[in-house]
Fold each of these.
Amino acid sequence: MSRRIQVIGAHSADFVWRAGGAIAKTVELGGEAEVIALSYGERGESGELWKQPDQTIENVKKLRHAEADAAAAALGASFRCLDLGDYPLEIGKPELELIADVIRSFAPDVLVTHTDTDPFNPDHPVAYRAVDRARSLAAGAGVQSAFATVKPPALFLFEPHQPELCNFMPTTFVDITSVFDKKQAAMGHMKAQAYLQTYYAERAGHRANHARRASGLQEVRYAEAFQRIVPQVVGEL
């Protein structure tokens, strides 16, 4: 059965570093993928672009959109930015309803977002709380509702930059060996944060080591780590 994965990040590049492989893997297996950015990261995550003379915030947004769109396409996903602003990212009722509508419209089987804690990035926990709450609203909060609802998607958190400081405990490793070249190509489009490309390529190798030890599958060369939040329902263990 084909799967639908939706990745919602605070900023336009978050998806590619932390879930690019999982996105490409879903598409490789015949599924569909959608990337949603709550902001472009135009103020706090576009340092290289602001070095250009006479730079403007609208031009930074335009460049960031082009980067993210190309990166998503390299993975086989669509990209959309809600342009809610960054540093600080602020979510009120209208923004929360918009995010819930986005989830309801795509109806993902799997929803991926940030951890609930990040001492170095104030936007990431805001994104987590918004996505977690919007997911519940889109699914009818467990009851029949006055608006259309979707089947509750499985909720996963992707690995933050410093997992040990962000309450991140990996519960799931995704083998991205067969699509690692696509993740590398996608990361290559993120020129505003090119310094992260080497870090996340190395991280995929580290997590593959953990995945091999956990599974005994020696063919895993690259992997991504995720933390599952909603319990899994199965017929047997």
Amino acid sequence: MVFLDYLNKEHTFAKPGYNRWLVPPAALAIHLCIGMAYGFSVFWLPLSKEIGIQEAVVCPDTMGFFAKIITTTCDWPISMLGWMYTLFFVFLGSSAAIWGGWLEHAGPRKAGVVSALCWCGGLVISAVGIVTHQIWLLWLGSGVIGGIGLGLGYISPVSTLIKWFPDRRGMATGMAIMGFGGGAMIGAPLANRLMNTFASTTEVGVWQTFLILAGIYFVFMMGGALAYRVPPSDWKPAGWSPPKATQNSMITKGEVHLSKAWKTPQFWLLWGVLCLNVSAGIGIIGMASPLLQEIFGGKLIGLNLGFNDLTMAQKAQIAILGAGFTGLLSLFNIGGRFLWASLSDFIGRKATYAIFFILGALLYALLPTLGNSGALALFVVAFCILVSMYGGGFATIPAFLADMFGTQMVGAIHGRLLTAWSTAGVLGPVLVNYIREYQIANGVSKAHAYDATLYILAGLLVLGLILNLLIRPVAGEHFMPQKDKAKASDPGLKKAGPEVLLQEAGQLEPSSCKQFALVLFAWLAVGIPLAYGLWNTVQQAVVLFR
């Protein structure tokens, strides 16, 4: 088929006049869609009363777990629905690891299209699961198939952006991965509006919302995937020269194949660095709203009362502040992805991660004191900085990998490394939630139930700092020989035509006015939804400071 042939990598090489600033909005178009995975919690409450509508129809205590999976007579508890969230990140990491090597050969366009089909198709399957009231279809659709779409969509632009922006690797990946953090900021309020539109006395409006989101996301993701272009081999921006190599430079001058990269100590040190940074952040982000409410209680509304002493009306008041706090954290999650990754272009990736671990450990250790003293503003500021570094860790790691292993196989290596995220996605929430429950069960007040957890998270970051300090440049023995490098370089390039081959070691021609107009349109297409999400989030966050 002509369309399937069009997806092949040889058709994605940029032609003369192409403007590299078209690639970041293409990546954002995909990441802003799949980033809704962070916002799926907006569906938990409506889905937990999908049969009862007003109140959940609780399953009998005698009903077993497997019976609840296929029952059509009672509602699903939130604990069962939450497995979709866990499956998202387990399959994100595993699919990125399994198909990262395929992506390097197939190209970002084909991977982006498969991602769109999986993510949007998973939403459609989940809609069918809601209509038939079969939760296993939600797990399969959004959790497994959608999770595969997350993995391919997440890594599809990474190596492409790094190759287009060798002068600003951190900034380029930060722009794209920023979108993953911002997806929920756009999708969550949109989903709420759609559910409210379709809600009735017989519907909670979720399956209709899934179908509409699937349609919107499919248009944006296909647009982003088809807009991908890759540069010819050894392309570099006009007027830019690679920095001169020094003996202690952390930026390699060779290329390391995936088959060797993951066997090096540097890979596993970076795996540990990412896993510990994510573990320290992901669990506490998931509990941000209840954490703020339980630590400060009535102090949030000017009352010297603990959380358990508040009335239902007062708890409703502080819940609004908790939502504002969560929205504020999402802003810093997004901003940190771009700002910290951009900063790493100037101070280096290793130094950037050293800041994450040193400053992060100090702030986590300080949080219990700030909470116990009632210093709300300082507590919020500390949390915002921590979350910015959590997001910054995701955005900086692809550039760190490119520095260590070269750019040729960085997409595949990044995919393999994301298994650290899958591990942290289980470790972090389990650590935070179970220690909190253990503390409360043993008589610790809710205001102090997080203290031990925060100290443990500080310890994890100290361990991460040690691993970061151990990272050294990759030994030359791991580099691909020139003949192997040429063999592995850009499969399909020779099929792309002489127009591209002539540019292999040269520059693309200056962009035309038409290209400039395309760049403007592309950025507006992703910028307007992002501005919508920012506005909604700021409105929520302002409540915290009234």
Amino acid sequence: MKKILTTIVFLCVAVCAAARTPEYRKGLGEYKIRIGGIERTFKLYLPTNLSDEAPLVFVLHGYGGSANPDRFGMNPVAEANGFAVCYPQGERDGKGKTGWNVGYPVQQGMKTDDVDFVCRLARHLQKHCNLSKRNTFCTGMSNGGEMCYLLAYLRPKMFAAVAPVSGLTLEWMYRDLTAKRPVPLFEIHGTKDTTSAWEGDPENKGGWGKYISVPLAVGYWAAVNRCTHEVTEELPSKRLESGHRIIAHRYLGGTNGNEVWLYEIINGKHSWASKDIDTCEEIWRFFSRFVERK
């Protein structure tokens, strides 16, 4: 009788677990998952040519934004190169704005642990979609870019590389956190960004909290990765009439071949920069340098 009861309990647990795991299909789908006591939503794109142990790329939206793949344009790049893309949805803060809890003043008292959420979602997708544990990457716009920096500090073993776009390193991160290991990093940032200022905001004039300059933030990771030299070149712009020049700073020769890139969009504003460059193509070009082959 005891064995029968044990078997019934085991089957019930198995059935419930199966019910909680969505059936992931090729193409774009929207799913729900319960993590940290909160039901979270995310969109997932699985290309038609997806192979076993394929890479996984997270794309994190900006403050007040949504998990909208059309906003970024990563799916065609994923289809062409055979990697999965996950677009998680951020929770609302006290002002009712969606985003990622990175320690903005307005997020004071916010209990959501988004670092834990993104990492647990990554492990879930790695397991249930047979994706690579070694080749998981993260990019994000603005507030999503801040999450990229935070993940590099706190969960460097989870992500093979990160690529913040118009992202910031808040002063509290820079002062209170220490990188545990080198993580390749690629920042794309406009010099005339009035939301995430290139020169930083040491007095918190913008209300996001104090943050350091973009060159200092990127330089920190160049040092952490033990990069030995910088190569600089000017890239062609897709919009010659915009007056935006694109200066690529590449810090090379790092630990295990790691690199740190900074694309300086001269006169560029707060954006994904897709009108100036093929942003998603460039991000994948960077990530692909750190895909660990079997």
